[in-house]
Amino acid sequence: MTLLIYSGLALLFATIIGAFGLAPTCSLGYRPMVSGYTITLVTMLIYIAFSAAIPIVFNDMQFVNALAYSSEEEIFGTLCVSWAAVVLFVLSYLYFTRDRPINMRPASLYRPSQANFHILAYVMLAIGLVMKALFVQRSGGLQTLLLSRSGGLAQSLGLTDEVDRGSIYLNEMSFIADAAACWLLLTALRVRKSTFVHILIFAVTIGFSFLLTPKRLVLLAPILAILIGFGIYVWPLRLRYAPYFVAAAMGFSLITLLTRIFLPAYLAGVNVLDFANFDRVRYFVVHLMGMDMGFFEGTAVAVYGTNDVIAKFGSWGGAFYFPNVEPFFYIVPRFIWPLKPDHFVDVAVAVGTVMYGGTLEKANWGYGVGLVGTSWLYGGFAGLVVGMGILGWASAVCDRFMAKMHYASPERILIFAVACTTLFHLYRQGTIGWVFLNFVQTQAPFFVAVLVLLYVSSRGDKRSAIASPSVLEVGG
Length: 476
What we know:
The chain is mainly alpha-helical. It has helices at 2-19, 36-58, 72-96, 114-138, 142-148, 151-156, 165-173, 176-191, 195-212, 220-233, 242-268, 278-292, 295-304, 306-313, 316-324, 347-356, 370-404, 410-429, 432-442, 444-463. The protein has one domain. The longest helix is centred in the last third of the chain and has 35 residues, at 370-404.
């Protein structure tokens, strides 16, 4: 059985890596590194293959957390389900895609209304940064805010990580600064002017967002946008650079996670780990990554503990309603709906309570299962077919958006980056309601700001008397 497990893990890696060869081409004849398809494959590589490798390779074939589901038969069965999910996604994407290539041709470098765009972007940037500063002030200062991000430290220091709803909305609205900083840097890359200055503006802006926001994933759309823009305006980022992209994504995930842990500890003067003890460091890293990337373990619980997970919701209908429908009511103000829940629950929360006990009402954290686990939870193999079919369709829609563009402007690149980020959340969350909830909390103000820039841009295009030939080119 051990040999079968290692063979299954190798096949899983080989299938995902081989699937990159089916990535869509662009209008210039090469396969771009960033597309909806490749982003989904990278997500699968991290949250399926690497997630499986953590317990199998680095923890002596024992799950880090789902100990009750870590028999060799259950590990191998979960590998089979995961492999089937990858194959179904690829087949679904190929079914829904067309031959038209992704457009990677930039618009004209000179546009009459460009100065007005800069003014609008700088105004958005200033307003967003002021909102961030007000959020820090309302939260008791930067150090207090950072300390409160660590649950254990906050509890020992008598702090709370809860802030009033007005401050939460203020922080969410401040993401308009991130959109403006992205647009300014993309424009600088496009015209090859003031690039260094706008790199600094971008770095400072998203750096503040990372420090002030509990969710690290707020950085994903801005970083993807700059990667796409760099590949279009500066240097083609071909598919052969994908291994570096995957390595950078893994490193980024680990570094940002460690920063969340060690920065508050440093501010509090607490020694978290003795780095001279290699075995303890190894144990810490394996268990930390097992928590952060333990989707394979969560999938095993969803596959082999289906009835236990559904029982946490009371019924199959409840298991579908609470994670997929109820989160949409997050946007309803409490004065309209006085009985609005204080928190919303996901399948991940139910899986966490199956692992460690407890009830949904008292649980305040979860254990991710991804779209593979939730699809199997709702319908077994048939559910997996439907779930991967939806993921393949959504990835195809994302790539067709780029294929149908007349030109790759900064605004359209930003929309494409948001679409790719939504694909990431679709796989990672696995439930529609929580994809919506993540979008509202981390991307909605960013996306609205991009739409405003796109609207002003389109009006500027209509006022332009002369169009560059490159503006009229359509990829394909």
